[in-house]
């Protein structure tokens, strides 16, 4: 990558160390490339993201957990702030009030493995929901896709949000995370859940000793999560075997529902009747998704 020396926002010595970790191809302080890592680079002028984030001083693209850990250690040694990005979807909505930080772009960490028998997927940070769902639906399994869209990455969505109307049936993401590989804020690699029992053990959130997975969960954006998750196993759920067939011509396309699935829209006379209906539907466990839609229009 090309270098542009305008103002030294991070010490040259630190930058040389960062470059040595990933190779010169995968680290840069080039202002033009770094500018692409701000909200304006995404032409989101109409969205609430506008102007929130500043240009990073350096962008670095690691390939392995060990590289991530080494980057974090260098940043700590020089007192340089850093932030990870998996898909860059919501990170641009996060306020960054300084320009002397390193952005760790995890897009080169893109492995996706599906353990069909145990109904889990083992993902690296760059795997997005679109890729995951495409693969698992071919195996008669599903999981949620957040309202933010299938371009959201699976790991940060499990860490920060992980909600959609299907959570009526599928639990919130706290319960969908299994074993994980985590780089702590100090740059140590920690293996959590059943991963403690061995390299290939990804099936369980609990492991030997106390369950510390809660430390990974934040609420949204930067508000909570710690460190960098480099691998996670997530639970998958059984779906019916019929294919979801696309229908229509772009942009007016949709998916034809399999014969066993239907949308039911109905009105109820009062709030009390609504509460009773929801209660009965839940007890009978007959819906994938049950939600109140506000009355609108005339
Ligand atoms: C219009 C809109 C609607 C949305 N609706 C919903 C919804 O209905 N349901 C829902 O669940 N979500 C929703 N979201 C949130 C969306 O799913 C998030 O984008 C997602 O949770 C985070 O993934 P990301 O791909 O955006 O990650 P990124 O933009 O890459 O990162 C988001 C945050 O996670 C941190 N991060 C990234 N990777 C890692 C990592 N590997 N380890 C630790 N921290 C990391 C980043 O530093 C940043 O703070 C919505 C978002 C938008 C913009």
Structural notes for this entry:
- With 298 residues, the protein is an alpha+beta fold.
- Helix content is 21%, strand content 18%.
- It is built from seven helices and 13 strands.
- It has a five-stranded antiparallel beta sheet with strand order 5-6-10-8-9. Strands 1-2-4-3 form a four-stranded mixed beta sheet, with helices on one face.
- The structure holds flavin-adenine dinucleotide.
- Residues 83-91, 94, 106, 125, 146-148, 152-153, 155-157, 159-164, 221-222, 225, 228-229 line the site of flavin-adenine dinucleotide (FAD).
Total count of strands: 13
**Mean model confidence by pLDDT:** 87
- Percent of residues in helices comes to 10-25%
Bound molecules: flavin-adenine dinucleotide
**How many separate helices?**
7
Major sheet, described briefly?
A: 5 strands, antiparallel
Which word captures the global form?
globular
Q: Alpha-carbon distance between the termini?
A: 58 Å
How do the strands line up in the largest sheet? Answer: 5-6-10-8-9
The poorly predicted ranges are: 41-46
The structural class is: alpha+beta
**Oligomer category:** single chain
**Strand percent estimate:** 15-25%
Radius of gyration: 22 Å
Compressed to H and E, one letter per element, the order equals: HEHEHEEEEHEHHEEEEEEH
Key words describing this protein structure:
single chain, 298 residues, alpha+beta, five-stranded antiparallel sheet, 7 helices, globular, binds flavin-adenine dinucleotide
List the helices and strands and how they pair.
Elements lengths: L11 H11 L4 E2 L2 H5 L22 E3 L4 H14 L3 E4 L16 E4 L6 E4 L4 E4 L5 H9 L3 E2 L11 H7 L12 H4 E7 L5 E4 L35 E8 L1 E2 L6 E5 L2 E5 L14 H14 L14
Parallel strand pairs: 2-4, 3-4
Antiparallel strand pairs: 1-2, 5-6, 6-10, 7-11, 8-9, 8-10, 12-13
Helix pairs in contact: 1-3
Bound molecules: flavin-adenine dinucleotide.
The site of flavin-adenine dinucleotide has 31 residues, from strand 3, helix 5 and strand 10.
